[in-house]
């Protein structure tokens, strides 16, 4: 299939989405996408976490002790169809929030949902049982 650069622009987000599509991931299905913001201090992370909770975001907060310098990381979980323009909009919003709270936006990721025909047949049989 030829890449549609309107749907999958030639940048990091477009490349990830294109690779997901090429791997067989159904991008019309909602995914839980994880966006991350990193902080050097617990206090800044906690203030940002409270702000995100007030904005009705689903989050987790943990310390990454394996980083070169330990850092506090907020992960924001957004259940959505992985569409380029929506991802870019959320990245801009989370970047702004990170900067307002002394943190740094650190990217997004999600689990791929790829099923082959055998997997679907097995699932169908399980549901019939």
Which terms summarize this structure?
4-stranded antiparallel beta sheet; RraB-like_sf; 26% strand; 129 residues; Ribonuclease E inhibitor RraB; elongated; RraB_dom; alpha+beta; Alpha-Beta Plaits
What does this 3D model show about the protein?
The chain has about 130 residues and is of the alpha+beta class. It has a single domain, classed as 2-Layer Sandwich (Alpha-Beta Plaits), CATH 3.30.70. Helices cover about 40% and strands about 25% of the residues. It has four helices and four strands, in the order αβαββαβα. The protein has helices spanning about 10-20, 40-55, 85-100, 115-129, and strands spanning about 30-40, 60-65, 70-80, 105-110. Strands 2-3-1-4 form a four-stranded antiparallel sheet. A hairpin with a 6-residue loop joins β2 (about 60-65) and β3 (about 70-80). The longest helix has 17 residues, at about 85-100. The protein is elongated and about 50 Å long. The model has no long low-confidence stretch (mean pLDDT about 90). It holds the Pfam family RraB. It comes from Acinetobacter lanii.
């Amino acid at each position: 299939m030829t890449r549609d650069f309107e749907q999958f622009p030639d940048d990091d987000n477009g490349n990830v989405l294109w690779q997901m599509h090429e791997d067989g991931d159904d991008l019309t299905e909602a995914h839980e996408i994880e966006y991350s913001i990193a902080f050097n201090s617990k206090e800044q992370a906690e203030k940002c976490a409270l702000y995100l909770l007030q904005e009705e975001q689903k989050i987790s907060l943990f310390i990454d002790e394996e980083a070169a310098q330990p850092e506090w990381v907020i992960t924001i979980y957004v259940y959505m169809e992985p569409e380029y323009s929506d991802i870019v909009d959320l990245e801009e919003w989370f970047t702004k929030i990170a900067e307002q709270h002394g943190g740094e936006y650190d990217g997004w990721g999600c689990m791929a949902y790829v099923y082959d025909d055998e997997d679907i047949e097995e699932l169908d049989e399980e549901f019939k049982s």
